[in-house]
Amino acid sequence: MALDLQPPDGRKRVKVYELRQNDWFDRGTGFCTGHISGEIPRIYVESEDEPIRVLLESKITKEDGYQKQQETLIVWTESDGTDMALSFQEAEGCAVIWDFVHSVQQQLLSVAAADDALSDDLENYQPIQLQAPELGNLADIEQIVRAASMTQAGRDALSKFVIRDEYIGKLVPLVTMAEDLESLVDLHRLCNIMKSLILLNDNTIIETVVADQIILGVVGALEYDPEFPTHKANHRQYLADQSRYKEVVPIKDPLIRRKIRSTWRLQYLKDVVLARILDDPTFSVLNSLIFFNQMEIVNHIQSNAPFLRELFSVFDPRYNDNKRKDDAVQFLHQCAAIAKNLQAPSRAQLFANFISHGLFAVIAFAVKHTKAAMRTTGIDILMALLDHDPVMMRGYMLKAVNEKKTPLTDTLIDLLHAETDLGVKNQLADAIKILLDPQIPMPESLGRAGPDFFKLRSSNLLSDAFVQQHFDDSSKRLFQPLKHIANRLSLNELTFQEVTLYSHLVDILTFFVRQHLFRTRNVIHSESLAPRVAQLLTVPQKHLKLVSLKFFRTLISLQDTFYQALMTHNNTFGLILDIVCETMPRDNLLNSACLELFEFIKRENIKPFILHVVEKYRDKLDQITYVDTFRNLILRYDQMQGNGADADATLFSQDENAPQRLPLSGQRWQGVKEMDAAEEEYFNASDDEDEWTQESRAAVAETAVANGSASPVVKPLVDYPDDDDEDEDAMDTKPEAAAAADGSMETPFPQVEETAVPPSPEASSVSEPSSPVSQKPSAPERLAEKRRREEEDEDELVKLAAGPKRRSSLSSNSGSTVMNRKKTLSIGSIGSVDKGGAQGVMGTVMSSAPPKRIAINIGPVKSASPDSAPCEEVVPDAGSEKENQDEQKGETTS
Amino acid sequence: MSDLDRAIEQLRACRLIPESQVRELCYKARELLIEEGNVVSVDAPVTICGDIHGQFHDLMELFRVGGDVPDTNYLFMGDFVDRGFYSLESFLLLLCLKVRYPDRITLIRGNHESRQITTVYGFYDECIRKYGSANVWRYCCEVFDYLALGAIVLGASSELEPSGSNANDLTQSTIAVDDGELETEVLNSRGEVTMSSYRPRQRASSDVDTDTQDILPPRDISAAPSQTSAPTRTGAPGTGASGDGNGSSMTSRTGAVLCVHGGLSPLIDSVDKIRLIDRKQEVPHEGAMCDLLWSDPDEIEGWGLSPRGAGFLFGGDIVKQFNHQNGLSLIARAHQLVMEGYKEMFDGGIVTVWSAPNYCYRCGNVAAILELGEDTSNGGTIARSNGEYGRSNGLSGPSSVSSPGRRYRVFEAAAQDTRGMPAKKPVADYFL
């Protein structure tokens, strides 16, 4: 017997352990080598300190006693029963020795087998030799292949042989032979052999399989799956069909043509022929082959200027082969789909190339197509671009506006209004959402730039006013239909199309508000959209009600005084309570959504709403007893009222707040803390007087409109919006003004207000001992470690992080991180009104509801008839607040 | 034959319906689902099913083994899509059946009924492949948002009527019958009993039960108008169970069964809390709604971190406490592959039901469905206290409820001649 093995090179540093009385005894550190001396394979370890001393000399046996553990450990039992362990310094060293041990064992086993003459030489994998295939010996071949596939060594040997001998090519003719003889048994054997060979998972073999002269034979064999003896697939028919390959503009490079074909075959293998039996390694081999092919194809296309010119010239208006135009759109669509899988730089390059050749014109052509399927395809291409780089796309769009061309957004908006195919409408809404996304993304996407990327970006960043104006204009256009429902007497007879349109519009509006409340404010108030959405709460279509409800729920969660005023001055809560009453005590989605809204207000302790709701709708609340949500709301209200201002002042203002004020004045940033409702309310005062006036004026107008429409009795106030619109228009025409306003809105706040986050006196004055946030039942901490991916688990959210961005923007509550950041910016400018009040509270007097009072102050009810303001009674000291305000002013100026 | 019936026929043959019809179906389903609570009340008898995962032919096998709709009432605990190659056919068929027989079939949401998950695990690709655009995927995802989060089964009988078709092992059941009433029974796909377990009779406690038994007003018949025509299938307890009247009044104390895809949440201490969730949203990454769809029971105490990255692990003590507090006798859930098709844990406090045999076409597991019989011992009235709001307050005194009789039907992947070779649909044309 001859061991045909190369002992491993080099010496691996290792510690030798022996198990003595259940304890690992350290026999010393040394260098490990594998030897074959006198046909006997051994592991040697000689001592590091005294090279002559042998720490270990162990004969490798064929018994299966060796274990590799944790990359660096080899553990086994000596023939005398001693347990031994080698702990390697390097995983690589361990692997080398392990491989040596492993291959020695393999050989010993096969040698032993040969010696015993119990089995034939099938198990001797070194090297493997298959007979030239013929129908007569398929059974033997199948058996050898199957046996060889069991071990890694066998697989390697088999792969080598199959490649060297071009064995698959030899198998192919047998398929037709067996078919001619109608020998199902042989066909099944061929199928099994093919499967095993493919699952050897070798790049070269798989590339061979999809080669022109081989592929049909291979899938032919795979048509006869013995697991489905009564079935025959028709893979050949599919793959032989040349007409499936379409060429808009012929690709001349034969290499690329071949790549296209083999990619298509690989995909077919992956998705159809092998779909059921693919193991993970083969799956990834197929995927990577496809990926690299596609890379090459796409690179070829985009670097092929004549090809691109010809491709895009198809869309020349003078040219009227419509079929070809459609095909060209499909072609581009497929390119875009492939691009999704490419790495960002190649993708950017491809898109930039397409765009410079006129991709936008193609999109415009497609989205106006008479066939809905083509419109869908066109928007899909657009979405691919938007997914790839929304900033770039917005840049192009703004450039178009700047050059007085019709921007893509206008086209899309008009289409959205007119579109009747609901699927396309859906897509349009998504595209508009992203194109108009008022949020300016951080420049994190630098680097995935197209040619004029930087130019675009800089123009984009610099002219914020311009962006705002475009946003306002587009939004006006977009929400026009929503505005029109103000004139409708009844919303009971909405058409299906109208309902769909409204729900898309409200959904988009909700998205805008959540993304960036400052930009959206202008639109919401100048177009008085909130009352329109409120109107939609009364429609018979429940899903539309839900969408509208979601809008208000989002407003509430923003905890912004502007939006709070908006809600408290409309009959919004009345309408929501109506829904509760209509649906109760039935347990349905609408009902749950309403309950959740009120639970949120209660949990987050949003005072303005608690006060407003309980004061205005107490009777209604009293009647809703089937859940305790509303009882608790009233309870919370009563607690607020019950804890008198004076008592609180003495309790808290001196002890806790006074000392806390000191560090605040000196220190601006204390990091962004999560503020609860009350805190945010209290400390969201603004320093910016100009903005204050502007915004509060806006709020007055807005609330006036709201009330006007809700109760037409208050006639004179209805005129407000018009005046205001004029103001707005004036502002819109002066971009600098808008810019100034914008700038002042965005930058100063985080510095001034966020620092002011001591524990709210309000929160502690309520008898609940814990802050609203901490009221949740304790759950195990969600540590970062929890997100760690474990190999065996497949359903993981982690995986999704790599998923397409767009779809996460569609999901209704994906904005949480954005929201958090927003929150810090969300300090409402209306809040500036109550600045004095809020800070005054900190100083001396405890007042239970400053924001509420402020809201009343600017509200039309109050201004129209101050005496009749119903809430005035419950506010403890309206006068003292004024004092506080003055006092505070004094403080800040000093 | 209505359009809907035609669509059902077509889908049963594993042929897709046109996009416009899908859209209409989804809108109808939405109208229906919006009226369902986050936790749907379902009356026994009902057959509870776990994950399907697009294994259409195995879903057909499930209907063959469990009885067809509308003859059998079904409750599917989510994960209709992804993994298998026929997510569309499976989900659309279930949705059609839901729209056609709203009272006969209940669908609740699984963690795979989500935009994010379906883009990774196959449903999105399948929609693109089969319909050429993502529109159908959008419609379906919209429906996902409306699906209920759980269901509560009321009026299940604690006692099983032994199945007649006691195949090979007759001695097993005849000996045991005297020891007590039949509690669980496992049947193979041919309806042969392979295992049964019995509950020891406790005369004393059942006497007590008779005394304290609340007779509640009859349930609102109008809510389930078709109740009278409920067909009796083999396995569903017939009237015989109530006829002997002598000993088995324990049945009236059978607790309700909560069905949810994943498990419990530390944020949810009562079934009523689930009602306060606004469920119309993408499945969030954390919070109560996420936990209900993602959590798993585990042999631990209290709560633990889940290796899945969402939801939690919860131990037997949590289950016990939750069941006690809510008057539940059992939590049925899916979400985890179990090789035997079902797995009871924590003294029968929770059961995992898995209905995708040979999962992913290669796991080699069998599947199961769980049948809960109807308790007829109260002359058609059932203890409703578990179904109404405030049930957590209403239960005072010793609330030791007995578990329902459980009949598991175990089945294997559909026979090969009833299906083609499962494969994805190839693309029609290509340019590149």
TrEMBL record, chain A:
Q: Where is the composition biased (Basic and acidic residues)?
A: 879-894
| GO terms of molecular function | protein phosphatase activator activity
UniProt main location, coarse: nucleus
Biased composition of type Low complexity is found at: 752-774
Keyword annotations of the record: Nucleus
Gene Ontology annotations of biological process type: DNA damage response
Indicate yes or no for the key word Nucleus. Answer: yes
Going by the entry's taxonomy, the superkingdom of the source organism is recorded as Eukaryota
Query: Is this entry keyworded Nucleus?
Result: yes
Annotated stretches, region: Disordered: 702-894
Instruction: Tell me the InterPro entries matching this sequence.
Output: EVH1_PP4R3, P4R3-like_central_dom, PH-like_dom_sf, PP4R3-like
**Start and end residues of each PP4R3 EVH1-like domain:** 11-110
Bias kind Acidic residues: ranges: 720-730
Name its cellular compartments.
Nucleus
Q: Which residues form the Serine/threonine-protein phosphatase 4 regulatory subunit 3-like central domain?
A: 140-639
GO CC, any one term = nucleoplasm
Protein name, entry field: Armadillo repeat-containing protein
Q: Which organism is it from?
A: Penicillium ucsense
UniProtKB/TrEMBL annotation, chain B:
Task: Tell me which EC number(s) this protein carries.
Answer: 3.1.3.16
Look at the named UniProt entry and state the broad enzyme category this protein falls under.
Answer: hydrolase
PROSITE patterns with a match to the protein in the record: SER_THR_PHOSPHATASE (PS00125)
- In this protein, the active site sits at H112 (proton donor/acceptor)
Question: Which keywords does this Swiss-Prot/TrEMBL entry list?
Answer: Hydrolase, Manganese, Metal-binding
Q: Which family does it belong to?
A: Belongs to the PPP phosphatase family.
Name of the protein: Serine/threonine-protein phosphatase
